[in-house]
Design a protein that fits this description.
The complex is a heterodimer of chains A (230) and B (104). Chain A is built from 13 helices and no strands. Chain A has 230 residues and is mostly helical. Chain A folds into 2 domains: 172 residues, no CATH class; 54 residues, no CATH class. The model of chain A has no long low-confidence stretch (mean pLDDT 88). Chain B has 104 residues and is mostly helical. Chain B has one domain. Chain B is built from 5 helices and no strands. In chain B, helix 4 packs antiparallel against helix 5. The termini of chain B are far apart. The chains are: A mainly alpha (230), B mainly alpha (104). At the A-B interface, helix 3, helix 4, helix 5, helix 6 and helix 7 of A face helix 1, helix 2, helix 3, helix 4 and helix 5 of B.
C-alpha cells in the first residue's frame, strides 16, 4: 500500500491538467463579484465558504439580476444537486471512515476532484485511497482561493473579449473524452445535453442541470437493462 | 437579507449537497446494477453544463448561427477522442476558439 502522502500527491498530479481552466474561471469570478457590488472581504468569503465555481457564478448572476434571496438560495441548491450524485458515487469508498473525515472530505467534493478520483477509487482498493480525493480537492482549493484574490486585485485589467468563460465548458468536455467512444455514454450525453439546452429557459430555478442529469441516468437505466438479464 | 447571510446560506446548501449522500448511504445499499448506473453519472451531468454554455448566449437565447463556440467545441471533442488527453482537449478548444474570433 502506498503511503497517505503518495496517494495525496497522486491526486494533486492527476487533477493538475484540470486546473488550467480554473485559473481564468477564478479570475472572472473575482472581477465579477466586485463589479456587482460585493466587498473584497465578502468575495473572498464566498470562495472560502461556498467553494464552488458554479454555485458562486449562479449567485452572482441572479444577484445582479435582482432575484430574491429565496430564489438565489434555491437556485444554488438546484445547481448543486449534482453533488448528491457525486456523493452517492464516492460514498461507497468512504463508508468505513470516521464522521470527522467524512465532514472534511465533503468540503472538497468538487467537480474536478470527483472526476479524477472517481477513476482512481474504482481501480484502487487500498484503505487510504480517499487521500487521492483530498489531494485533488486541496489543489483546486488553493488555485480557487488565489485566483479569486487575483481577480479582485486585477479587476478590469482582464479583457472580456478573450472569452475565457469558454474554458469552463471545455474542462467538462475534456473530462468526457473516454466516454465519447462508448455507445451508451454517447446516448446519455446527448439526452442530458439536449434536455439541458432546451429546458434552460423553461425549467425554473436553474434546475435544468439536475433534470437533465436524471433524464440521462434514466436513459442509461433503460439501455443497460439487457445486462441485467444476461 | 444581508449579503453576508446570503453567502452563508448558499455555502450551507452547497456543503449539505456534498455531505448528505456521503453521510447517509451505507455500503450495503450498493449492488452491481446501482454501480453500473452510477458509473454513468459523469456522462449524465457534465453535458448539462457543457451544452447550455455552448449553445445559449449571455442573454439566455439559443444561438446557432455565428457561434464560434460550436465549431471550437467540435474540434476539441475530435482532438479529445483521438488524443485521449485532457490538456490537448482544453488547449485545442481554446486555441480554435481564439483563432475563430480573432483571425477568421
Amino acid at each position: 500500500m502506498k503511503s497517505n502522502f503518495k496517494v495525496f500527491l497522486k491526486g494533486i498530479i492527476d487533477v493538475s491538467p484540470l486546473m488550467i481552466p480554473v485559473v481564468p474561471f477564478g479570475l472572472i469570478f473575482g472581477v465579477l463579484a466586485i463589479d456587482i457590488g460585493f466587498t473584497p472581504i465578502q468575495t473572498i468569503a464566498m470562495s472560502l465558504i461556498i467553494f464552488g465555481g458554479a454555485s458562486q457564478i449562479v449567485l452572482l448572476q441572479l444577484f445582479s439580476g435582482g432575484a430574491s434571496s429565496l430564489v438565489i438560495i434555491s437556485s444554488v441548491g438546484a445547481v448543486n444537486s449534482r453533488h448528491l450524485l457525486y456523493g452517492a458515487v464516492v460514498s461507497e469508498h468512504l463508508s468505513d471512515l470516521k464522521l470527522t473525515w467524512k465532514i472534511i472530505i465533503s468540503y472538497f467534493l468538487i467537480d474536478q476532484a470527483f472526476a479524477i478520483s472517481n477513476e482512481y477509487l474504482k481501480k484502487n482498493k487500498d484503505n487510504n485511497r480517499y487521500f487521492h480525493l483530498l489531494g485533488g480537492g486541496a489543489t483546486c482549493w488553493v488555485i480557487w482561493q488565489s485566483t479569486t484574490f487575483l481577480g479582485i486585485i486585477l479587476g478590469a485589467a482582464i479583457p472580456e473579449k478573450l472569452g475565457l468563460s469558454f474554458a469552463v465548458p471545455l474542462t467538462f468536455l475534456a473530462l468526457l473524452v473516454n466516454d465519447f467512444r462508448k455507445f451508451i455514454n454517447v446516448i446519455v450525453i446527448l439526452v442530458s445535453g439536449l434536455v439541458a439546452t432546451f429546458g434552460y429557459n423553461y425549467i425554473p430555478f436553474k434546475a435544468y442541470v439536475i433534470v437533465a442529469a436524471v433524464a440521462g441516468l434514466f436513459a442509461a437505466m433503460i439501455l443497460t437493462t439487457k445486462d441485467k438479464k444476461a | 437579507m444581508s449579503n453576508w447571510a446570503l453567502i452563508i446560506y448558499c455555502g450551507l446548501i452547497t456543503y449539505l449537497t456534498r455531505f448528505s449522500m456521503i453521510a447517509l448511504i451505507k455500503k450495503e445499499m450498493f449492488n452491481d446494477r446501482i454501480r453500473k448506473i452510477l458509473s454513468f453519472v459523469p456522462s449524465a451531468i457534465f453535458p448539462a453544463i457543457i451544452f447550455p454554455a455552448i449553445f445559449i448566449n449571455d442573454k439566455g437565447l439559443f444561438e446557432i448561427d455565428n457561434n464560434p463556440k460550436i465549431l471550437a467545441a467540435i474540434i476539441a471533442m475530435v482532438i479529445g477522442i483521438f488524443s485521449r488527453s485532457i490538456i490537448a482537449t482544453i488547449f485545442s478548444g481554446l486555441a480554435s476558439y481564439w483563432f475563430l474570433i480573432f483571425v477568421v
